[in-house]
């Protein structure tokens, strides 16, 4: 064997990764539909898997973005002053309780970095938002999970786990992703009261605009262990622009100034978000379009013998009626036909696929592809 | 005294900041000109303080941004595939050696998080890039500084300090900000060779496009302790779009997948950067405009009895000939006239003000304001 005679070259010394980074996998929390298409060779025909909005942004927002693009030669305002004021005015709260950021994903990472020491415990639901889990691992905290109950996040068990583990943080999405389920505002307030004062609650309200009245609690500027996440990615149709914000008590909001990426929100995104807040008519029409789209999607699912679950979001969890492998086979069959959909992965929830509100063309493709896939699977 | 009779209310318990975050000040590494104008009430007339480019982006880039804005309803490609390939093709290297990110500021933060454990030492120049220092503190590392020598970063002393402190990282900007000075490629290669293999070198080449031939070393995919930062903010005129990239060996580049904000670069920014790389003619014309602008700015400074320093960037350090207080008074006088300029703060360097390449209108305002301020100061 040639190998015997090769000289062993000692490895060249190189910089080490920091201890936490060294433990982390290289990962993408969500593989994008572009990557799926590149790898499978199947062109993307219906993009209804990432809870985006094909009904936005508004023409008024596009005009603001086009105008702001011409200002791209200079940095945006690192204080995001005008955007911050616009959000505060929209919600009728103080700007001191608002911090914009370059998308909720980035804000979630900053929140973990601020409030969870390495080794501390963070409570979340088993099957909850993967990007939050990515940040838990990324900053060296320990994840403690609580199962869903009846396709909802189990708020009593989450609060209990926060107490029992003396958690640094606890995460709850209301309405929930990936199941589309929700709790009413009174239940959320009961949850907040049941969590220890020393545990920071991350209440992710990314889908709040889609929820029925009575779902979103009133803002309480005096609650010192609550951060509420909001985004322009969903109802405002600006997923690709990267802008969201966090609401909280003034001291917690101000703490983001210790670590945030001050120039992180582009000029175009700042202008887009301000214009989006000003165009209430477009928001209303988008919400109506989402409702109509999901009603039609539910009808399609029912016609094919599947069971749509109730939803307070811009997507529909559809119970495929058998196990996770069966739902995965449906997902794979849809993907082979260029219909991009996602699904929960955790046992119990994984009997479902998750379909975002799409256009009439998206739904027609979904209808046809679903019929073909179900016929194939028998 | 009334105070005697007030009941002491015990503080309500609240979540603690993580230990590193608790040590950090609330800060903005650079107060933006918008904030300066809001606080002073003086409208911004000449924006020549942040090394932006009034000559960009190209019309072709604006067209790409306008088109991409319409795609803002969906998330951008989290792998930034097309942009990554475009950068690699532009540089004639492998995409495995390239990682785009949402601006160099964000990439610098990720680099520190990846390669510097809390408590480890990072070497940089006293008076070097403040945002890098912000990340050093932000991730709990210790900053070790080395003074400039002859208005340049002292590459021999930086390498020596990296050896003596067994530094996790060492930072060097070439060309340098804020002085505009530079080393030739051979000196940089000597510096790289003198730094220990276990110290990660951050070579910030944000101003590389402006430098004379022979300044930027050839890319070496085998160098395992070097990360090179590049940006679309300066020569490409896209500061407000938030997009930069890092070059390095494949393992180091891939490590960014452990912690990066995968959806961080907006659709508009990805499209803008791709279009910018394709428009070489605009880049050339911008570089020529910057050169002409700085020649004129240097002449203005000289006419007023100040000394422009040599520059390999899109800005000019101007030696005001006295101490830091005098240069600060000039800066303040310019600010009172709506002329936004910055200056180094460290002793020795702080005799200078730093003026970015501006338009003819910017320069006329600078000329007039400078004359008034110098007359006032006597």
Automatic annotation (TrEMBL), chains A, B:
GO terms for molecular function: transaminase activity. Its cofactor is pyridoxal 5'-phosphate. Pfam families: Aminotran_1_2. The keyword Transferase applies. Keywords: Aminotransferase, Pyridoxal phosphate, Transferase. Belongs to the class-II pyridoxal-phosphate-dependent aminotransferase family. Histidinol-phosphate aminotransferase subfamily. This is Histidinol-phosphate aminotransferase. It comes from Devosia yakushimensis. The lineage of its organism: Bacteria, Pseudomonadati, Pseudomonadota, Alphaproteobacteria, Hyphomicrobiales. The gene is hisC_1.
